[in-house]
Amino acid sequence: xxxxxxxxxxxxxxxxxxxxxxxxxxxxxxxxxxxxxxxxxxxxxxxxxxxxxxxxxxxxxxxxxxxxxxxxxxxxxxxxxxxxxxxxxxxxxxxxxxxxxxxxxxxxxxxxxxxxxxxxxxxxxxxxxxxxxxxxxxxxxxxxxxxxxxxxxxxxxxxxxxxxxxxxxxxxxxxxxxxxxxxxxxxxxxxxxxxxxxxxxxxxxxxxxxxxxxxxxxxxxxxxxxxxxxxxxxxxxxxxxxxxxxxxxxxxxxxxxxxxxxxxxxxxxxxxxxxxxxxxxxxxxxxxxxxxxxxxxxxxxxxxxxxxxxxxxxxxxxxxxxxxxxxxxxxxxxxxxxxxxxxxxxxxxxxxxxxxxxxxxxxxxxxxxxxxxxxxxxxxxxxxxxxxxxxxxxxxxxxxxxxxxxxxxxxxxxxxxxxxxxxxxxxxxxxxxxxxxxxxxxxxxxxxxxxxxxxxxxxxxxxxxxxxxxxxxxxxxxxxxxxxxxxxxxxxxxxxxxxxxxxx
Amino acid sequence: xxxxxxxxxxxxxxxxxxxxxxxxxxxxxxxxxxxxxxxxxxxxxxxxxxxxxxxxxxxxxxxxxxxxxxxxxxxxxxxxxxxxxxxxxxxxxxxxxxxxxxxxxxxxxxxxxxxxxxxxxxxxxxxxxxxxxxxxxxxxxxxxxxxxxxxxxxxxxxxxxxxxxxxxxxxxxxxxxxxxxxxxxxxxxxxxxxxxxxxxxxxxxxxxxxxxxxxxxxxxxxxxxxxxxxxxxxxxxxxxxxxxxxxxxxxxxxxxxxxxxxxxxxxxxxxxxxxxxxxxxxxxxxxxxxxxxxxxxxxxxxxxxxxxxxxxxxxxxxxxxxxxx
Lengths: 504, 325
Description:
The complex is a heterodimer of chains A (about 500) and B (about 325).
Chain A: H1 2-12, H2 15-33, H3 39-46, H4 55-80, H5 89-100, H6 104-138, H7 142-157, H8 164-178, E1 181-182, E2 189-190, H9 204-230, H10 236-240, H11 255-277, H12 283-296, H13 309-320, H14 322-325, H15 328-333, H16 339-350, H17 358-362, H18 364-396, H19 400-419, H20 422-440, H21 446-468, H22 480-503
Helix pairs in contact in A: 1-18, 2-4, 2-18, 3-4, 3-16, 4-5, 4-6, 4-18, 5-6, 5-13, 6-11, 6-13, 6-18, 7-8, 7-21, 7-22, 8-21, 9-19, 9-20, 11-12, 11-13, 12-13, 19-20
Chain B: H1 7-18, H2 20-26, E1 37-41, H3 48-64, E2 68-72, H4 79-87, E3 94-98, H5 100-109, E4 119-128, E5 131-135, H6 143-152, E6 158-162, H7 170-179, E7 184-188, H8 191-199, E8 205-208, H9 210-218, E9 222-227, E10 253-260, H10 265-280, H11 282-290, H12 301-324
Helix pairs in contact in B: 3-10, 3-11, 5-12
């Protein structure tokens, strides 16, 4: 093993490879921070270059983009309340609140550190226990997945403290929206009202950006308008100052605060790594579950939703911890468990390597070099992130009057660019209207997004399980893993009810 | 998975589309100009179609006289991609690459603004061979085992396939019509999910294309029991065809490059030739072997159009038979 590592280091720590990693991370962070664009897109765009680069360099670039993108999404989430990538949706709940409290730098730093810790954990798991974890991942069939989704929905609905009913209602709306399009089993179109543009369903990006960004734009815009109408005399100096008197030196993350968030980060790392290894589960699910569980085990659960650093840490860590483990099904069985894994799988094929069990044995040197690159890229992410954050923090505090048009345009262009689809832009606007309505009626937004994300998976796994069981509902408890999730969900509900009673 | 145009590329192509009148002049209406050619796929990036398209893009560009880009448009179940090609200027610069589910099955089962005949195949790239496989330690290890078990206990075996009526589902329907056996059909999100379910022991049988499972077969994790093709697959030479086993069911899926019918025939001919030239090069052949893309026997217009007509008829027959049940 040791001499292999030495050989692999020669490959991985070549100056060009390091350069490509840095380039990749920079690209990834930047693109991830732009709503609608994501690391996946950059990876897909740069796939042709894989033909021309040497494998180690190509891997370095793609890995850098991937990791940079995972963190980059949180930048927009914290700064503008718009998740830059779907995985950052959970980060935006507390992240944006933190920025509204005037602490974007603390938030961004928390996100960075937890992202890197979660990511590194996942990479280490990939390197050392990929095969056993893959075997566990395989035991998840439709019955187990449905139990997992049911558990997460209950977890997330309970997130909205004091508003559990509203949380569940909004999650249900999310699931309903996800049902527009094709029936996953028969392929028949439903809820499309005869519009062919809807036959593919609503895309995640426009819904996400619409719910968060457009509604925020409208809300902020109306606040500005009201301020103009109400206040006849404005402080000219205040208006002229781009940053509203933001003093970044007062917004540093202290060591004590960092230590306080570690528990949440570790929870995220564990949950994210596990969920990341399950094919099809997804970054958002990992992030939300981490968030929910961290709240359960936090000493200050009431801060969640108000700018809690733990909230940011758990969400970001959960999101980033899917990075290494998403490769596990690909390496173990040749099955890509996510869009990113599929892209990497295509890259492997283009480089002449076949994803699957033989990948490690046939291409040992390159794969070990890849492992080293994964770890190294985390370091680059940390350093580059730390370097860029002061600038991003300041950007975050730009006055709404200047930021709103920018975010609005970026949202529309980013949405269109995501899938070359005009339908998506309409969905964006509709989602924005929905988001505004929900906000006006004090409904939480996050459960809607989670309902939308896991709705299709939940429906499909439920119906697949029913088909497999011949229509018998009892099939849902035929698996010990599934029973485990249901028991955990029930326990959570009990815990929560008692906790609420105890507080009263 | 998805090759998505960046915002810059979107702006550039928007500019190009508005200048399409000029572009039509530049290509003097009847021959391929020097503007970039876009191969549109109605699928996400990273799949077999994507890889094949990229091999074309990398090798045919110099023969066709311009850059070739691969565009993925999986929206609206792939309809957006087809709509995009149908609406594009008829100068041969926007072409479609798809299997028959998109151009034939979808057109026949849904309300589309085009007919099957509106899609003109110009290159016959390869024929995909749907393959049935099981987990290596399953009781079923051959076609005979399957038929026997299925006849003994109807509707006891769960068969996973991607997308109802897709190229990995129709052969199953045909086999069941031929033999009268009944299996439980479980739709999945695609080859990946089918494979996970097989390996995890959640379903009994699955159907996919050979390149996806070669590595699993070679490592002894799964057994491929049969191929719905006229001849055995090159990458899985030990797997018998269903015809060899005595069941006359074969339904290969041709992968074709299409132009919309509005494109003049001379341009169709030009495109067909330059793509074929590009694929005959050594580089292309090496890439194809590396990726198991099966591009060693690329055929032109006549073959493509003949197989398209044949496949259309077969799909019509299958659909009619299904609707009668």
